[in-house]
Each structure stands twice: as structure tokens, then as C-alpha cells.
Amino acid sequence: MSSTPPPQALSTGVRSGTGEHSSDDGPLGWLRDLGPRGRRAFAGAFGGYALDSYDYFTLPLSMVALAAYFGLDSGQTGLFTTVTLVVSAIGGAAAGVLADRVGRVRALMITVITYAVFTVACGFAPNYETLLVFRALQGLGFGGEWAVGAILVAEYASAKHRGRTLGAIQSSWAVGWALAAIVYTLVFSFLGDDLAWRVMFWTGALPALLVVWLRRRVHDAPEAAAVRERNPQRGSFAAIFRPGTAAAPGLLRITLFAGLLSTGVQGGYYTLATWVPTYLKTERGLSVVGTGGYLTFLISGAFLGYLTGGYLTDRLGRRRNIWLFALLSALCILAYANIPSGANGVLLVLGFPLGFCMSAIFSGFGSYLSELYPTAVRGTGQGFTYNTGRAVGAVFPTLVGFLADSWGVGGALVFGALGYGIAALALLGLPETRGKELA
Question: Left, alpha or beta for 17 (phi > 0: left; psi -120 to 50: alpha)?
């Protein structure tokens, strides 16, 4: 007789992959609740997303050096972010389909290898056009990693703890961001700018080590894999765009509003992630070390924001958590961009709540998007909506780039607040899913 628990375990409140009932409410109860296999899946997804973040931030942190090396204006540098995020929509959608058809872990390895290879290739780019192409191709892997890793862990997590479990996965973005900021400070302090930006990209080879571990130690949640394999429509784009009928609800409405939600949140986030380092150096007059210090406050706030948001998304619900931090993020952006030129101390202090709010809003995304879609198309739905939102949201940092020459980077940052307003409106078309089992 097979030792694999029946698929119904996903809807009876037991721990996926372990067959044990969840009753642990301690501070780390969510981690113990995953079981041994789930904790390995958590470690793989956490590491993958942290290194995804690291590879992403090699570009924004090197933006000033790149602009000087290739003689670029603000619009051209903003285009780097745009192509990365636009192509990430393709990569994310493809990775989601792969996750539903060949499994979560296999798809995760493919995305990690892709973003690592093309990040390293960026360091060898001889001109602006080649770097733009390599950065676009890096977006293929960058787009898929989070969605696949989040689903992998969501299918191990209990409904009670899913929000904080996925919030902890989100916090790894801040870990990767912090690592990139440390390496940036060291590399640009000891090397000339013309070589330093290349070295930053070359360090993007680190994720290759993670793939070896993933292959040997991490597996899909067995119950979810069984449900997925029995469904002939797994990985179907048609399924996530099917309208509802009187007999059966469809997923079209969910897909449209989830995509709009993702567009708003990521439009606001990537505006800040792309332009704050440049803003600190060019308009606030900070040195490399000074910029690193200010980013420390921002990143520390982000890390705690992910963890706090994960807790609140389980306590308040998915929608209320996103509404709360959409409002607070918009207010923080407006304050951050309008601090008087002589008040860099205030800028330093405000970096913490800015990082906190713009990250806490993401904590519910992994659980929320996973709960909006059934198992057979969970990867497809989450990969498509999250990364389509990322691609459309890429308009925001590009708009800032083109307006920066006339408005200044600080003045143009206010467009990030618009993104959070769009996210709040999108929630009006989506249901609350707190407590939902992933059947």
C-alpha cells in the first residue's frame, strides 16, 4: 500500500506532505507546521528568491556607473528596468505553465539557472544594446522564480499559517537586496566604476550552487502533485480566462482583477526599487558609502515589513492587509519625495517606514494568489497575473526616467503612489480567501 496520504488531505486541515494535524501556534509554529519536506521546500524557495533579488539589484545599484560608462540619459537607463519587467511577464507565464505540467521543483530550477546565466552575461556586455538584450533575457528567469517557489511552499503550508509562511518567503527579497547593497559598497569602494559594475554582474553566478541542492533535496508536495497529475487541463491558459456560468464559476474575473492588483503594487514598488539609489546619489548628494547607509534603513524596514505583513495577512485577511499598506505606502512615497534638501537626517529615518510599508503589502501575495486558483492551474494563474502585473507596472519606472530630466527624480517618484491607488481599487473585484484549504 502506498504511504502517500490521499489528495483529500489538502482540504482537511492536515499538514501537506506529513499527514499530521496542525496545532502549533508558537512564534515559529508556522515553520514546524511544514514538516521536514516542507521545510526543505521553504529553504529552497527562500534561497531562490533571495538570489533572484540579489541578481535584480545588481542593475539599480550600478545604474549611475552604467550611465557614465555608456553615456546614457535617464530614459535609456529607465528602459533597463522596463525590458526586464516586460520580459519577466513572458518568463513568469511560461514558468507557471511548466510548474503545472512538469512540477514545481523542476520549474524552479529552470528559472534559477536562467536568471543566473544572463546576469553573468550582462557583465560581459560590450555596449548598451547588448546589455539591454542580456537584461531582457535575465527577466525570463527572474519572472518565474517567485511564483513557482511561492506555490511550492503554499502547497505544504496549512491554511492557518499560510500567510506568515509565504510572508517569510517574501522577506528573502530583503535578504538578497541587503547582500547586493553590501557587495555594491565593497566593490565600488575598491574598484573603479568602469570595472565595478561588471564585477557586480559576475557575482550573479551564485545561484548556480542552489540548483545542485534543489535537485537533491527538494520535492513537490505529494498530495498536490497527485491532484495536479490527475487533471488533464493542468497548465491551461484557456482555463484561467474561462468566464463563469450559472452552473460553474469561471476564473476570468479573478484573472483580470488579480492582474490589475499586481500591476498597481509592482508599479509602485519598482518605481522605488529602481530610482531610490539614483535619487540618493544625484539629488541628495550621498557618496557610495552614504547611499549604502541609507539603504540599510530602507532594507531593514523591508525585512520587518515582510514578516509583519505575513502575520497581519493571517490576522486581518488578505484584502485588508493589502488595503492598509497600499494607503501607507502611497503616503510614505509622497513624504520621501518632498523632504527639503537640507534634511537628509529626516530622509534617513523615513527610509525605515517606507521600506516597511512597500514590503508588507507583498506579504499576502503568495498566499492570496495561490488561494485564488485551483491546483491544476495554480502555477499558470499565479505566474500569469503576478508577472503580467510586473510587466505593465514597468511603465511606472520608465515614466519616472523620462520625467526625471525635467521634474527631477524626487518629483517624478510620486507616480509610484498612483500604483498603490490602482491596487486598492482592484481589490473591489476579488474575494477574501483567508482560511481556504488548497484542495
Answer: left
Q: DSSP class of residue 6?
A: P
Half-sphere exposure of 150 (CA within 13 A, CB side): 35
Q: For 328-371, how does the pLDDT look when each residue is reduced to its tens digit (9 = 90+)?
A: 988 888 887 777 666 666 767 777 888 898 889 888 888 899 89
* Alpha carbon distance 368, 313 (integer Å): 9
Supply the mean pLDDT for the chain: 81
In the chain the first and final C-alpha atoms are separated, in Å, by 23
> Which residue ranges form the domains of the chain, and what is each CATH number?
34-236+250-429 (1.20.1250.20)
Q: What is the pTM of this model?
A: 0.77
DSSP state of 5: P
Amino acid at site 156: Y
Cα–Cα distance, 317 to 14 (Å, whole number):
21
Which triple of cell numbers denotes residue 362?
A: 507583498
Is-contact 100 156, C-beta < 8 A? no
Specify whether the CB–CB gap between 161 and 26 falls below 8 A.
no
CA–CA dist 237, 92 (Å, integer): 13
The model's pLDDT over 31-52, given as tens digits with 9 standing for 90+, comes to 888 888 889 889 888 988 888 8
Q: How far is CA 341 from the centre of its chain?
A: 32
Grid coordinates belonging to 86? 516586460
Q: Roughly what angle, to the nearest 10 degrees, separates helices 252-278 and 318-337? A: 30
- Other Cβ atoms closer than 10 A to 45: 30
